[in-house]
Amino acid sequence: MQHHTTRVTGGCLCGRVRYEAEVFLHNGYICHCTICQHSTGQPAEITVLIKAGTLKYLKEEPQYYASSPEGKRGFCGTCGSRLVWQAVRPEDDWLTNLTVGSLDRPADARMTRHIYADTQLPWYKVCEDLPKLTVSDADRLLVELARETGA
Ligand SMILES: [Zn+2]
Ligand SMILES: [Zn+2]
Question: Any residues with CB less than 8 A from the CB of 79 and at least 6 apart, and which?
Fold first, then answer.
């Protein structure tokens, strides 16, 4: 398991929100939950976890929508780009994650798993060789991620 992090930069389409962070670039995941589908307007949200406490905004801050008691989704108030899932509780900050498409170098990311594969759209095929976790695997996933990120 890797605790190796990579410093990345990224931001929104219009450039108003820019960030830098240490992320687990080679431990990304593809979330097929219906909240991610609605929030992105896409079949899935593809993200990388940050190292807790390392996310910094360099210009404007995102605006947020509280999508659950645990997290809020950040987006640029000008261009609408979805950027971040931000944990609400400070002790959960290790679960804060960035959208891969907002990274300046998204091609450098590597995926390791699907989550909420129960609601994967049948015609959306990507990284099909990776493990697929379902809703019932949520607790196991948290344990795995905690180990892999050193949280
Ligand atoms: Zn923007
Ligand atoms: Zn999701």
Answer: 12, 13, 14, 16
Which bound ligand lies closest to the C-alpha atom of 10?
Answer: 1
CA of 35 to the centre of ligand 1 (A): 21
Q: Which domains does the chain have, with CATH numbers?
A: 6-149 (3.90.1590.10)
Sign of CA dihedral 61, 66, 70, 73: negative
Q: Enumerate the β-bridge partners of residue 46.
A: 30
pLDDT tens digits, one per residue of 87-100: 999 999 999 999 99
Ligand (nearest to CA of 82): 1
Percent of the chain with pLDDT over 90: 95
Among residues 22, 17, 6, the alpha carbon closest in space to that of 102 is found at 17
